[in-house]
Amino acid sequence: MYKDSSNRNTAEEEKKNTKNTGERKKENRGQGDLTAPFRDIHVLTNAGLLTAAAIVLGFFKIPLTDIIEIRFASLPVAIAGYLFGPVIGGAVGALSDLGGYFLKPTGPFFPGFTITSMVSGIIFGLMLHGRKPTLQRILAAQIVYTVICGILLNSIWLSMLYGNGFIAVLSARLVKELVMIPVQTLMLAAIMEPIRRFRYA
Q1: 48 and 6 assigned to the same domain
Q2: In this predicted model, what pLDDT tens digit does every residue of 143-198 receive, in sequence order?
Q3: Residue whose C-alpha is closest to residue 117's, from 88, 150, 148, 94
């Protein structure tokens, strides 16, 4: 009796371990599959809502000075990156820029700004997805976003679009971008905390 019970327990443990190993392999395959989020209806639905929110918020701004203004379009893109990762974050960024332009063009279409918006979603996804959105992490993500997207990429695109020197464009934009880091960080932190609590409630 003792021998039979021991063998039965061992077989059950081996079966359980095999099942757990298979689940871990399945998870790893899912993590490596960049197209997996696009097959999830829940993710696509929420990504669509965030894209629409980014388009609508892109039409609003609060001017603080002649050159400094608060914009809101990047907030849903950052939230998409936080919730669903860099792939969906990048897609939401790109689609929101394209949708905003075609709904309300404000000048000649330039694909560089679409790239900037896509990169912003990727940055927030890489730095915030799967992590608790603490103020320090949000600040770090905002700094990286500002340096890469606001200071470097957008200065390059504006220089190419209007034929001005890169250094001249960069100098004119630098102070504005740096000033907006704490403002955007506080806005994003205020939104992220209730989203985090609702998500894990």
Answers
A1: no
A2: 999 999 999 999 999 999 888 889 988 988 898 899 999 999 999 999 988 887 77
A3: 94
Q: Domain range for residue 6?
A: 1-32
Contact (Cβ atoms closer than 8 angstroms) between residue 84 and residue 46: yes
Q: Are residue 28 and residue 57 in the same domain, yes or no? A: no
Q: Roughly what angle, to the nearest 10 degrees, separates helices 166-199 and 154-162?
A: 140
DSSP state of 179: H
124 shares its domain with 72: yes
Q: pLDDT band for 4, please (50, 70, 90 cuts).
A: low
62 and 13 fall within a common domain: no
In Å, the largest CA–CA distance within the chain is 88
Cβ burial of 132 (10 Å; 0-12, 13-18, 19+) is: exposed
Q: Residue 33: its pLDDT value, please?
A: 65
> How many domains, the chain?
2
